[in-house]
Amino acid sequence: MILYLNGQYLPREQALIPVEDRGFIFGDGIYEGVRAVGGKMFEWAAHADRMENGLKGLRINFNRARIDALEAVCERVVQENGLVDGEAFLYLQVSRGAAPRTHFFPPATVPPTVFVSASKLVVPRKMRDEGCSAVTFPDMRWKRRDWKTVNLLGNVLARQAASEAGAYEAILHEDGIVTEGAATNVFAVIDGVLTTHPLTERILPGITRKVLMELIAEQRIALKEAPIPFAKLAGAEEIFVCGSTTDVTPVVTLDGKTVGNGKPGPLTVKLREAFEARLYQAAAAH
Question: pTM higher than 0.90, yes or no?
Answer without folding.
Answer: yes
